[in-house]
Amino acid sequence: MPQPLLEIRNLKTYFKTDEGIAKAVNGVDLNVPKGKTLGLVGESGCGKSVTALSIMRLIPDPPGKIIGGEIIFGGQNILELSESEMRRIRGNNISMIFQEPMTALNPVYRIGSQMAEVIRLHQHVSKKEAVSRSLDMLHKVGIPDPKQRLREYPHQISGGMRQRVLIAMALSSHPQMVIADEPTTALDVTIQAQILELINTLKDEMGTSNLLITHDLGVVYEMAQWVAVMYAGKVVEYGAVADLFNQPLHPYTIGLMESIPQIDRPVSETKLLKAIPGMVPNLFELTEGCSFQERCHQAFDRCRFEQPPLLDKGADRLVRCWRHG
């Protein structure tokens, strides 16, 4: 397995509500390799975004709380750091591109003011130098007339440009790792392709490691070198992209693969897409056994009463399924 930049071990993040305790992240084990992109996939409600927010320690408390586990970055468990120590890492060593740029950017401040604030906070440079770096980053992410954009407010630019601004802000401090949480949400297909290509290009140029959260397995195949599949707050499969796409092991991963349209096949060979029956389980009522058992056509007695561990299948493949035990 490649050398990790960030290691997550048995991470648990719970939310206390009037209905009970929601186990949004319930024992996640994950490695983000150095200089590579890890794709994190799964249906809505599987815990992908909560995992990302846990890494950044941005879980709202209350109602959420990280109750256990380790997040090892730079040889230290960042869950043990004070808030002031975490602020030096957040945005400086680990940056995040949020899902919706219109809500991530402050609508009452100009683009230039927001970018300069981030740069001055982490790099401790003069206002003039911060503006210069902001211009350089906007140029690097392909925004035309960057001087004019710095004077504008978020609502005055398009969704694609707002997303590029967020990418520029995330990379302005030259972080070692970037978390991209659904970075192409609500963008049209052409702009999506441009944004993804931009993230990939900047990763190669700047040598960052990326954690890419997405629902789109096609994006993972094009962008990532490694992939982790999440279900009900746990990683159920992990491996190299080529290996996982060629031979998925977990029934959930197989179900996701069977839902991908195959446009390169002749019409005569095209198969109907298969839907995974049922829904992601209620996080307040998780069963004792495998969380996927009620939707799995391969489940047997052991699956119903015993939670499978993350099994090492060799060749850097991990899977959480008794069929492979």
Would you give an account of this structure?
The protein is α/β, with parallel strands linked by helices and 325 residues long. The chain has one domain (4-93, 175-324): Rossmann fold (3-Layer(aba) Sandwich), CATH 3.40.50.300. Helix content is 33%, strand content 24%. It contains 12 helices and 12 strands. It has helices at residues 48-56, 83-89, 101-104, 111-123, 127-140, 146-150, 159-171, 189-206, 217-223, 241-246, 251-257, 301-305; strands at residues 4-17, 20-33, 37-41, 64-73, 76-77, 94-97, 177-181, 209-213, 226-231, 234-240, 311-314, 317-319. Strands 6-7-8-3-9-10-12-11 form an 8-stranded mixed sheet, sandwiched between helices. A hairpin with a 2-residue loop joins strand 4 and strand 5 (76-77). Helix 5 crosses helix 7 (159-171). The mean pLDDT is 89.
Short synopsis of the structure:
With 325 residues, the chain is of the alpha/beta class. It contains 12 helices and 12 strands.
Secondary-structure map:
Blueprint: E1 4-17, E2 20-33, E3 37-41, H1 48-56, E4 64-73, E5 76-77, H2 83-89, E6 94-97, H3 101-104, H4 111-123, H5 127-140, H6 146-150, H7 159-171, E7 177-181, H8 189-206, E8 209-213, H9 217-223, E9 226-231, E10 234-240, H10 241-246, H11 251-257, H12 301-305, E11 311-314, E12 317-319
Parallel strand pairs: 3-8, 3-9, 6-7, 7-8
Antiparallel strand pairs: 1-2, 1-4, 4-5, 9-10, 10-12, 11-12
Helix pairs in contact: 4-5, 5-7, 7-8
